[in-house]
Amino acid sequence: MDNWHRSSYSGEGDGNNCVEIAETPTRTSVRDSKSPHRGMLTFRSATFATFVEGLKEATIRNEPH
Prior knowledge:
The protein has one helix at 45-60, and strands at residues 5-6, 19-23, 27-32, 41-44.
């Protein structure tokens, strides 16, 4: 995958305190921005979207995640 991008919540400085994602029509891959050579996790896009929505809902309710 060549289309990696970082979160807009990457933090200050060099922005290496985050994950990067790359998407295809059917898959979303996630890797550590500090160690991109160490591998990635790949999920079905719908599964990853459900995970992200759950994080957003927990944040809105101020629950730990």
